[in-house]
């Protein structure tokens, strides 16, 4: 019941309802933002969000809102989610009715036998929003290799964990000021070229609102297409902020469940908790991890990431030492790549 909800959730829901009512009166209409999903021959996970956007035309906001969203980072967070609204998911000839969550998100797994391997399209629609195609990567049933990658400080230099720098990088800097970690895109391209059909999934504690920027950034720097599993800023049923490590643990567990035959190459960095989370996953889910590759941050990056020049070490990190699978580390993709390939080749010959 609402009286039992965390106070932050009640405040957030109260504001959202009134913002939606205000914008609807001013002509804003429902739009579906598609997120890339994934699946196999018998099920797909469909992701998206229902928001309000201005109808193009008369007002200053209506003319320029979309252009603004592509400029400074803070505009990526200016959205009006539509909570608790019916949405129709269509997969092949099958249709499923669902309701968006309290933040307008859509996250549903649909059982189907209509899809074949490779990229497929499903659609999302409401009685107001037209059918919107949603890309879904369908992985072959016999695929045994996959790649899971962190984003912040692993492939993209943002220094996101530090509150002040996170605000500066996310809300102020233009997209052109973000830098790709050298060699990471080349490493991913080569790994997937050597394993046709293998999925790459990006798992990050970054906000879903940054997805348009991340998609453009990855395309510009040559990172392979793949689903992104991000999170939502704001209060939950238990606190003011979501737990980044718990989001990653849950995402890894879901991928292990959805692809039981895949042994994953896990790529992250040592600026926060990636090594501990990956080692924990490898130990608790034996047979699901092929190896771990960790990007080593410089002393300056470590300071910006968590306040000290040394690698983060707390009780969670120390409880999962060492890894039960092969683990390599390096300063960037050009350093990590040769180590990854040698380890993979060694594993094939064993």
Give structural notes.
By secondary structure, the protein is of the alpha/beta class. The chain has two domains: 2-138, Sandwich (Immunoglobulin-like), CATH 2.60.40.10; 145-349, Rossmann fold, CATH 3.40.50. Helices cover 33% and strands 28% of the residues. The protein has ten helices and 16 strands. Strands 1, 2, 3, 4, 5, 6, 7 and 8 form an eight-stranded mixed sheet that branches. Strands 13-12-9-14-15-16 form a six-stranded parallel sheet, sandwiched between helices. Strands 10-11 form a two-stranded antiparallel ribbon. Strand 1 (29-39) and strand 2 (43-53) form a beta hairpin. Helix 4 (184-194) packs parallel to helix 10 (333-349). The termini are far apart. The relative contact order is 0.12.
In short:
With 350 residues, the chain is of the alpha/beta class. It has helices spanning 7-25, 60-69, 163-171, 184-194, 211-221, 244-258, 274-284, 299-306, 315-318, 333-349; strands at 29-39, 43-53, 80-81, 86-91, 94-99, 105-111, 118-125, 132-138, 145-149, 156-157, 179-180, 200-207, 228-231, 263-269, 289-295, 326-330.
Main sheet summary: 8 strands, mixed
CATH H-level superfamily title of the largest domain: HAD superfamily/HAD-like
**CATH C-level name of the largest domain:** Alpha Beta
Q: How would you state the average pLDDT, rounded?
A: 82
